[in-house]
Amino acid sequence: MKAIVIITGSEFVQGRKQDKNGLFIAKNLFERGVDVIGIIISPDDLYSLTNYIKYALDRSDLVFISGGLGPTSDDITRQAVANAIGVALIYHEEWLSKLKTEYKKAGVEITQERKSMAKIPYGAAILENPVGRACGFIKVLDDVKKAIVALPGVPSEMEPMFYNALDKLGLKEKKKFTQLYRVFGIKELDLNYLLEDVKNISYNFSPKGVDIFLWEDNEKEFLQVKQKVKERLGSMIYAEDNTEMEEVVGKLLKEKGLTVATAESSTGGLIVSRLVNVPGSSQYVLGGLVSYSNEAKINILKVKKEDIEKYGAVSETVAKQMVENVRGIFGSDIAVSDTGIAGPTGETPDKPLGLHYIGFTDGKETKVYKEIYKGSRNDVRLYISQFALNLIRLYLTDKERSFNNG
Amino acid sequence: MKAIVIITGSEFVQGRKQDKNGLFIAKNLFERGVDVIGIIISPDDLYSLTNYIKYALDRSDLVFISGGLGPTSDDITRQAVANAIGVALIYHEEWLSKLKTEYKKAGVEITQERKSMAKIPYGAAILENPVGRACGFIKVLDDVKKAIVALPGVPSEMEPMFYNALDKLGLKEKKKFTQLYRVFGIKELDLNYLLEDVKNISYNFSPKGVDIFLWEDNEKEFLQVKQKVKERLGSMIYAEDNTEMEEVVGKLLKEKGLTVATAESSTGGLIVSRLVNVPGSSQYVLGGLVSYSNEAKINILKVKKEDIEKYGAVSETVAKQMVENVRGIFGSDIAVSDTGIAGPTGETPDKPLGLHYIGFTDGKETKVYKEIYKGSRNDVRLYISQFALNLIRLYLTDKERSFNNG
């Protein structure tokens, strides 16, 4: 079964806004075994939209349209569908009376424009909008066994209505077997080598690591591939869904009943800020010290002045003192620290851009890791924060081997 | 002049990756007065892509294609263009010999697939790739006065080649007059009321404020509208281009030679992390203290225990002590603080979700602002960090009136 997704909105084709509904709809259709053969973004112009709908109907079995169902003059999806398939628009009486009641309650006049939100092409079934006032619709074209689905553009309205439409189209169940593995601590080349025999796989690289996406049509094959990939990647996998590293770490800290504090220089508060991102983090995050200046390192974190002078602020010694002292100051169970050169300036002959020392301590043992990461300032900081959070994760999951390898 | 932008990549239609090149190309074309009547995302399948190219040529003057120029079997853009317009593919001899030299140097065999990166449709002009190995091309169809431009999908390769293509097409200069105003400190309703007489305007709301986008075809009219909007918004405008609040604040701190420190509870390091985002921030960011627990507030920030007990951690008194004490600890010129309930839990009968106190001090005077912001945890934290940074901005630009209004 083939589908084309049409997004309508002049703000998208004029480059003012990034559409995200296309990706959402496409992903869900793909997972249900539907072959998406296009995402088309149309301006809010009747001629263009009508033509795209005709094109899509010619070449696919399902046409999903998002946007253009509101009450203003640039909301033209209903008319475009009616034009494309050659039927009239009629009022859906129930939805119209619901609209009338609502507007009356709100003390707002129901104009022709507002009434139009209850219009659907003749023969279509409505999709009720659980949040907003515009209804959507499904129009099945019996003669050609095709269907058009019209949905609003606002994601909070569109998403439940889309799932409802899938249900009505008999596409509720996922038919494609898919798996996401989020991985940290392996280089692109090593990964390609490690998984070169895996066929249906895609990679998404970022400073936070690699998102590996697997898919198969056949369940048995899928389970085998999944198992193989999982075994090979081992503890480098930090999540098997869209979970972020800070959520994984937060869950582990909560389970073990441990608290954490950070001493940050290069990352400038990014590590603690990411930890605090997670709801409920007040249970285990005691706080953090951002010692961006040497004075702050010396006066507040009590790093020895002579060591900063001797080894430099970006050094193993300083990272070690930072992490041990911040743990003492906050009285936490574990702590992480970093000091480094995020760039674009600050390098010296023996300290290249991207050089970082990342410290970890549990009070019994302190380890300091040296990492060099090349990239933009923010990519470097994101990578180092991910590295530090990953140290906590590996410690808490007792993966001593990987912990030693960083 | 009309254009359609085609993006090719199965990863996009299968919902595995968000395309961003479409937005980039569309925005640039819009600014040059080109009417973009569609962004089409095609799978890497010869039949689909060829059909989209034919459709686009039928309905527009310019067709831009991004992606599918690499050496693998799913790189089909060259062939699809050749099929769509009915010409043969030929080698561009110069680019081919450049490729041969490069592969020889790298000790890599030049296969047929790799050679194909030097192929262009007969009669096309190449677009040299300053970064990668695949060349792009422009094919002008003289008989119908239309042109097809093929560009790689990797943004760092695509962008310079796209500008080069615009140049060759005589579209270098911007013809649309556009202006971005980034605004903080006004509610959606007030803004709509304030600017209801402005026609070509769009708003993009986020916790960081509102991005207002203006556009006009006529320069004189544009300058008038721009002036009007600027006057009405006054010091609520924090940037007139894509600059972030932390960059604006950083520039001002550098100019005035002042230093800053933060004491953060609810934002958990987000304020200092954003300040540190900016290259060169080590000149003015001394550091920050994230006192997420009450103990950290008491022991490290020296907030009075009895005041936390009496007023609660989320209170004007605590915000005041936090900001004054952190300024003392770091020895900075100015400081900001926050304490609040980011949610989703933590509310009490007299302290609703979203309640925050934000402190600012310059050592002479301390001000504490009360703000309630509703939204997801991260939206709340982003808003509060923006609010705090905006306080610094208003102080440094001496906008006393607005400063008092928050």
TrEMBL record, chains A, B:
NCBIfam families: cinA_nterm, molyb_syn, PncC_domain. SUPFAM superfamilies: CinA-like (SSF142433), Molybdenum cofactor biosynthesis proteins (SSF53218). Belongs to the CinA family. Residues 4-172 form the MoaB/Mog domain. InterPro entries: CinA (IPR050101), CinA-like_C (IPR036653), CinA_C (IPR008136), Competence-induced_CinA (IPR008135), MoaB/Mog-like_dom_sf (IPR036425), MoaB/Mog_dom (IPR001453). This is CinA-like protein. Gene3D superfamilies: CinA-like, MoaB/Mog-like domain. HAMAP family: CinA_B.
